[in-house]
Amino acid sequence: MNTKKTATTKSSATSAVEASTGRGRQIEMIGEVVSDKMQKTITVRIFRMVRHEKYGKFVRRTSTFKAHDEKSEAKLGDVVRIIHTRPLSKTKRWKLAAVLKKAGKTVGVDV
């Protein structure tokens, strides 16, 4: 019984990403800034759809994450991309990667 194990090789795209970052694939989320009142910290709300276990209906769930914003460039209502990083404080484990869409100002609207 002569069995040989063949080594599995990673795809070139996966190895290129790992070679460029050195850490593998980064976890990214896209969400809306709901608070920017802290210094160098923003609160980002993420929406996700979850299927109800019993009834099968899709329900929208939310999660909020604290993210580090070094330059305080993200403002309330902006759509941002955040990436997972090492723990920066008790509750902060995310870092701002990019501001994807600035919040539009509504001028002259009476509520």
Sequence-ordered SSE layout with sheet pairings:
Elements: H1 12-21, E1 28-38, E2 41-51, E3 58-68, E4 79-84, E5 92-101
Parallel strand pairs: 3-5
Antiparallel strand pairs: 1-2, 1-4, 2-3, 4-5
In short:
The protein is mostly beta strands and 111 residues long.
Helix content: under 10%
Radius of gyration: 20 Å
Order of helices and strands: HEEEEE
Q: Which CATH first-tier class of the domain at 26-101 would you pick?
A: Mainly Beta
Overall average pLDDT: 83
Structural commentary:
This protein is mainly beta and 111 residues long. It has a domain at 26-101: Nucleic acid-binding proteins (OB fold (Dihydrolipoamide Acetyltransferase, E2P), Beta Barrel), CATH 2.40.50. It is 9% helix and 44% strand. The chain has one helix and five strands, in the order H-E-E-E-E-E. The protein has a five-stranded mixed beta barrel with strand order 1-2-3-5-4. Strand 4 and strand 5 form a beta hairpin. The longest helix has 10 residues, at 12-21.
